[in-house]
Amino acid sequence: MNQAEYDKKYEYNRESSGNWLSKKVDNYGNALTRKGFVPALKRRVRCIKWLEKYKPSEMLISDLIAGITVGIYNVPQAMSYSTLAGLPPVYGLYASFFPPLFYSIFGSATHSSIGVFSITCLMVNKCSERMLNHENKEDFPGLTKIQAITSLCVLTGIIQAVMAIVRCDKLMKFLSEPAISAITFSACFFGVVTQIPKFCGFSVPSRNEPYFGLFYSIYAICTHLTKTNLVTLCVSSCSMAFLVLSKIFIDPMVESYDGILKGIPFPKELITIILAILASHFLNLEQNYGVKTLHTVPRGFPSPDIPRTDIWTYIIQDAFSIAIVAYAVTMAMGQIFARKHKYRIDSNQELLALGLINIGSSFFSVFPTSCSLSRTLVNERCGAKSQLSGIISAIVILFVILFVGPLLEALPNCVLAAIVLVVVEPLLRNITKLPRLWRCSKHDFVKYFVLDHSLRCATDFCKCGKVSRQRRRCDPRNKKRRNSVDSQEGTDWTAIILDCHTWTYTDSMGIAAVKDINEDLQKLQILPLFANLKSSLRRQYEQAELLEEEYVCEKEVSKLEQRISEEEKRIEEEKAKLSQEKNHIAKLNGGVVEYNLESGNNKEETVHVEFKHKQDEQQIGQDQRRLNLQKKILAQKKLKLTNQKKKADDKKQAAVNSKRIANYQIYPSIQEALKSAHELVDKQQNFFKKLVPKE
C-alpha cells in the first residue's frame, strides 16, 4: 500500500503543495462569492454566530451576574493599571469600556475579558517615557503622552491585523516562553521602579539617558529617600498590608465557599479604594499632611482624535513587542478555558480581533490592550456563557465614567501604587524559573537576559511542532478519538511510535511540546513510544523532570555501598604497599635499582623501578577517580531513595509521575519498539479495565 492508497482508504485529505499567494487569492475570492460570503462573514464577525445560538432563558442571568461582577472588579484594577501606563486613572476606565465592546463583535473566545493588562501597561509606559525624553524631540513638536500612546495603540493594531492577514498566528503558536517571560520581567521591574516614588510620596526628575537609564532611576530614588512623606508611606503600607493579608487569608476562604456567591472574588481592591477615599476625605490628608490625591476625575469621554503617524518609525519596535505579547497572553488564556468547556477558538481571528480593537480604540484615547488573566478567571468562575458578559461589564464602566468620577477625586495616588505593587508581584516571581531553564536549556537561559535588549521577540520553532499539530489525527481508523479528549469510552488502546533520530536538541518550548504530546495522546488512549532518542536528550528530559523518576531498590543501594567499601579498602592497601616500596628504594644508593623480572617467555628483563612506580600511581589514580564517581552515584541513589520513601503515600506526586514519560516508552530502535508495542497495549488495556468497575 503506497501513500496515496493509504490516504484514500482512511479519508485523509493531504494539503496541496500550491503557492501560498495563490491560496490566499483563492480564499478571498471564495469569500466574495454568493456561497462563501455568509460563512466568511460569520467567521470574521463572530457576534452573528453567538447571537444565533444565544438562549436568554438559560444564559442571560449567568451573563448578567458575570458582567456586573467583572465590571465592579475592573474599576479599581483599571485605575491602578492606568498609573502603570503613566496616565491618569480615568484613561484606564476608557480602556476598559471600548475594547470589550469591539471584542464582543470580533472575538472568538467565550470567557476572555479584554481591557487593561499589567504587562502591556508597563510596556506602554516604557515606550512613552522614552519618547517624551527623546534626544530628537524637535522632530515631533508638541508631542504629549496621550498622543504618543494612541499612536502606539493604532500601530500595534495595524501590526496585529497585518499579521492576521498573512497568517502569522501559525508562527506565534511556537513563540518561546522564555522570550515572553524576559519581556514581561523587564517591563514589571521597570514598573516597580516607577511606582516606588508614588508609594513613598516624593517625585524623581526624569532623565534622558541612552544607556543604563534604569540604573540612573534607581540611583535617583535612593538619593531622594530622605524626602519620603511619612504619612503617605503609612497610608500605602497599610493598603499593601490589607491587600496581602486578604490575599493570604480571605481569598482562600472565599474560593472554598459553596453558597450563592460561589465564584465571586473578594473585592479587596475595591474595599481598599473606598476606605482610602473616606480616610482622605474626612482627615483631609492632602492639605494637612501633603498626601497627593487624584484631584480631578473628568466625567464623560474625550472627543475622538486621529493618532499621529510621524513617530511610528521611533516606536515600531515597541509596537511589535506589545503586539506579540498581547496576542500570546490572549491565546494562552483563551485556550485554557476552551479546553475546559470544550469549544474551539480561532487563533487567526483572535489576532485580527486584537488588531481591530486597538485600531478602533486608538481614536478614543485608549492605550494598547489585551486579555486580562485575573478578569478572565473571574468571568469564567461567575458562569459567563457568552460575550454578552463583556458588554454588561462595559456598561458598568460606562456608569462609573458618567456618574462616579467626582467621588474618586479624594483617592490618594499612593493607594493605586500599592495595588500595582501587589499585582505585579507574581509576575516578578518568573525569575524563579531561571534555575530550571539553566538545567533544561542554557540557550533559553541566555536568551532570558539578552532578548529584551536585542530582539524583543522570538519565534523559536520546537522540533515537535509538526507532531503537535497532527497529534489528534494520528489514528484515522477511529474518528471518536478526534472529537473528544476527555471521553474515550468504548475505544481500545493503541500505540504510536515516534522516530526521534532527527531530534538533536530541544529547547524549553520543545520540552513543553513533548510533554503535551505524551499527555494528549494518552488521554486519547494512544500510548506514544519514543524510538532512537539520543542520550543527551534523555539527560535533558530528566533534568526537566519530564521522564518518570527511576525506582531505586534498597538492596541495590546496599550492594553498591558494599562494593564501594571493598574497593576503597583495596585502594588503601595498594597505596600503603607502594609507599613501603618507595621508602625501601630511597634507602638504596642512587635511588635507582634494577630488578630482574620473569617474563612469560622465562627471559630476564630489566626495568627502572621509578617507571614501574609511576605506572602504579597512575593506575591507583584512575581507580580513585572511578571510586569517587561511584560515591557520587551512591549519594544520588540514597537521596532518591529518601525522597521515594517520603513520596510513597503522596497522591499528588503519583499523579505527576503518571503524566511523565515512563521508561518503558523509550527504545533504542524502531524494531525494539515494534516488538514491545502489542504487549504494552495489552497491559495498558487490562490495567484500565481493572480500574473501571463492571455494572
From TrEMBL:
Keywords: Coiled coil, Membrane, Transmembrane, Transmembrane helix. It comes from the Eukaryota. Pfam families: STAS, Sulfate_transp. It is found in: Membrane. GO terms for biological process: transmembrane transport. Residues 60-449 form the SLC26A/SulP transporter domain. Residues 530-584 form a coiled coil. Gene3D superfamilies: STAS domain. Residues 484-550 form the STAS domain. This is Sulfate_transp domain-containing protein. It comes from Caenorhabditis tropicalis. The lineage of its organism: Eukaryota, Metazoa, Ecdysozoa, Nematoda, Chromadorea.
